[in-house]
Structure formats: structure tokens, C-alpha cells
Amino acid sequence: MTTFITLSIPADHPAFAGHFPGNPVVPGVMLLDEALHAVATRLGTPLAGSTIQSCKFLSAVHPGEPLELGFERADGGRIRLEIKSGDRAVATAVVDLAAPAPAAEPPRGVVGAVRPAPGSAEWANRAERGSQSLLRLMAWLSLGAGRRLSRVVLHAVAVYFLLFAPTARRHGRDYLRRALRREPGLRDLYRHILSFASTIHDRVFILNGRYDLFDVTIEGEALVRDAYLRREGAFLLGAHLGSFEITRAVGHQQVGLNVAMAMYADNARKITAALGAINPALKADIIELGHMSAMLDIQRRLESGSFVGILGDRSPGNEETEEVEFLGSPAAFPTGPLRAAAMLRRRVYFMAGLYLGGNRYHTVFEPVADFTEVNREQRAAAVRAAVRVYAATLERHCHACPYNWFNFFDFWKKPVRSPAVPAARP
After folding, report:
1. How many CA atoms within 13 Å lie on the side-chain side of 258?
2. Cα dihedral 419→421→422→426 (10° resolution)
3. Dihedral (C-alpha) 75, 81, 86, 87: value to the nearest 10 degrees?
4. CA 298, 301, 303, 306 torsion: positive or negative?
5. Which of 16, 119, 139, 371 is the most buried (most CB within 10 A)?
6. Residue 376 buriedness (CB in 10 A; 0-12 / 13-18 / 19+)
7. Helical packing angle, 132-145 and 186-206, nearest 10°
8. Domain boundaries, the chain
9. 228: closest CA among 393, 387, 361, 349?
10. What is the DSSP string of 348-382?
């Protein structure tokens, strides 16, 4: 049985500005993206992991033109769809939508436990502790009591996680052993968790505009200021290192730096919900990856002179990675962010907001790659080189500020054992 849905691409969509001036036409990738989202929404099926078996664009579609999408199930669980404008065929496609993951029964006594999805990374399947209600309560108490007084509770939080989060503690110990180049003690583990808790707590004040509470120094400001003044859009490649939110303070005080964050759908929803809990009036500027229109959105932001930020130290588990030496062992880094920068011929800068204790942060901007003159034949080698530069830069800052990298999972997939010290139990 065929199901029908009405579609229409609004005439004021920003993609029409460059596709094409004077004769706007709906980009095929956008048309297919809208159709897939409509089908997935109607069926209640996620788009992540879906594959397009075949697709044909048969005629042009103009802004605001009413469209009819018809789809039906085909053999093998595939979806066959057709888009029409009146009697005129516009596009056809056969799509294999991702099957919904079966609901896993949580282990007894564990709230919110999830079963890892096939091919997904460990961090992506880690159950989140806390809730939006707890975030709202934390924000209310922190803003009411003030930063200095409300920080007292962070020590209790750090002790709690040090005692009752054995998996995170074990992986944190493995990382610190590499970053400190010695066997970490309980004081190191405690300081690592406390730094993490401090940056989350400071997020409440930063996202509510209390930039005056922080002492922020900047390294490499000229790089982004010059790019900003030239209206030269660029990628800011960050990591789970320190606080990304502190760049808001940098933009407020220094260069008018506005960054749209690009992230995968699940993370985008979590971040949007968290921002809403901390400051309901704050609008998240997030580009949701995993959609065919995401690259168009990124390109539009860059062409307008904006910056696009993305974290480069975690892979969702189903994308291409490059294995490089990192803190003493090979580690897989995602190549997607750098491949996107290479395709769009943009510069890439490393970005981190390092927490130095108290109310002090040090924001760092460093060059990673310049893809502006890289052609198609040079692209793969240039991306591999950029991954190595990024990993080396991250490693250097992990050694310099070891309590700032917040990856509490098995980043290397196997523990490191230093020959100079005996293996310690977590």
C-alpha cells in the first residue's frame, strides 16, 4: 500500500541563494533529505545507518512548488519512494532504512542502562547520569548562591564519582598514566574528576552571560581575529579538552567570535536539552550531522564568514578513522571533520579552553591544516597529515594540562602498562 505525504521547500530557504542566482532550483540532496525525514518520521524509524540503494532526479523543482511524496515497502524491508509535482515525476529512490534497535532490558539495579548498538563506539552508548530536572535545579542553586559558594558541593561530587564510578575511574587512570608519564595516585584521579565537575559547573554561569566571573587568557587570538575580519569561514576543531563554552566568553570580550557547533543527532538533542535546562532563553546554534543537508548548512555558514566548530577526538563508531600514535599507543581518530574541511577547501584551527583552576581559563587557537589550495588528488594525503597534526597537538596539551581531557572510556581499547611502575588496581 502506498502512503502519500505533501512536501514543499520554502522559497526563503538559504540554499537558493547560490543554487542558482536568478533561477533558484531545489538541490537534489535537499529534496531527498526532506523526503527521507518525512518517511522516517511517519514510520518512526531512525535515519542513522540508512543507505540509499538507488536514486534518480528526473526534473527540476522550484521554491515553494507543491510536491507529493508517495512511498511503499518493497522486498527485503526496503522503501521505494517517488516524488511528483502534479503529474510530473520529480525523483525516485529505493532506500534501506535502519531498523529500530530492539529495546534492551536494563540490568537489575541500573537506571537508564543501554545495550551498545552494533558498530557504535563505547562512548556513544554510555548511559548519561543525571536529568534535565537536576540540571535546572543545579542552575537555579548555582545562580542563586553564586559561583564561589556553590562550588563547595563539587568536592562531594568528585568524591562520589571517585568511589562509585569504577569503570570511569579505571579508564581515567589509564589516561593519566599516559599523560603524567607516571603511575597516578588517588589525588590525581580526584583532581581529574574535580576539573571535569568544575567545567560543567562553570557552564551554568557562562551560558547565562556571567563572563565577568572568569579570568580568561588567549593564545593565538590573531589567527581567528584575522579570519573573522576577512570574513573567511573556517573550521575550529576541538576536543573533550577543558571547556568549549569558555569560547563564548572569548567571543564576548575579544573578537565577536560566533561558532555553530556541528554534531551527531543524539548529541545535538542532548546538548540542546541541556542548554534549555541551564538557560531556557538561550538558543543553541547547532548543525545536526547525519542529514544530507548538513554539508549544505555548513557550507552556507562558512561562506557567510562564520566559524563551524566540531569535536575531533571521538568517532561514533561507524565512520572512517585514521590510526595514529597518541600518548604512547595507536588510537583511531575520525577523519570526517577534516575530510569535510578538505572538500570545502577551508582552514582548520585547533581550539581548546583549558581549565587552570579557580576561575582561570586559557583559550588556545593553533593552526592544524590549510586546505584552501588542496585539489582532489592531494586530498587524502592532506587529510591524513592533518589528523597527525591534530593528534600531536592534542597530545601536547594533554601533557601540559593532564587533568583537562575528559574521555572516561577505553580510548585505546586496551590498557597501557608502564614498564617503570607496577600495574595498579583501579
Report:
1. 12
2. -110
3. -40
4. negative
5. 371
6. exposed
7. 80
8. 3-96, 132-148+199-404
9. 349
10. EEEEEEEEEETTEEEEEEEEEEE-TT--HHHHHHH
Among 339, 337, 372, 335, residue whose Cα is nearest residue 351: 337
Parallel, antiparallel, or unpaired: how do β-strands 347-357 and 329-334 relate? unpaired
**Helical axes 186-206 vs 152-164, angle rounded to 10°:** 130
For 412, which DSSP code?
A: S
CA-closest candidate to residue 33, choices 3, 2, 61: 61
Residue type, 213: L
According to DSSP, residue 123 is labeled G
For each of the chain's 426 residues, which pLDDT tens digit applies? 778 888 877 776 655 655 566 778 887 777 887 888 888 878 877 665 567 778 888 888 888 888 999 998 887 778 888 999 988 998 998 888 655 444 444 333 333 333 343 344 554 545 444 455 656 667 777 888 888 898 988 998 899 889 998 999 999 999 999 999 999 999 999 999 999 999 989 988 888 888 889 999 999 988 888 888 888 889 999 999 999 888 766 765 555 567 788 876 555 455 545 545 555 555 556 777 766 667 778 888 888 888 998 989 987 666 789 999 999 999 999 998 999 899 889 999 999 999 999 999 999 999 999 999 999 899 999 999 999 999 999 999 999 999 999 988 889 974 444 444 444 444
Chain position carrying cell 593528534: 391
Task: Indicate the CATH number for domain 3-96.
Answer: 3.10.129.10
**Residue environment code for 306-336, b if the CB has 16+ CB neighbours within 10 A, otherwise e:** bbbbbbbbbbbbeeeebebebbeeebbbbbb
DSSP, collapsed to helix, strand or coil, labels residue 238 as strand
Task: Supply the Cα-derived Rg of the chain in whole angstroms.
Answer: 23
Q: What is the DSSP code string of 243-285?
A: -STHHHHHIIIII---EEEEEEHHHHHHHHHHHHHH-TTPPP-
Q: For residue 366, which of 382, 351, 387, 354 has the smallest C-alpha distance?
A: 351
Whether the bond into 333 is cis, omega within 30 of 0:
no
Please give the helix or strand (H or E) that residue 135 lies within, else none. Answer: helix 132-145
- Model confidence, pTM: 0.69
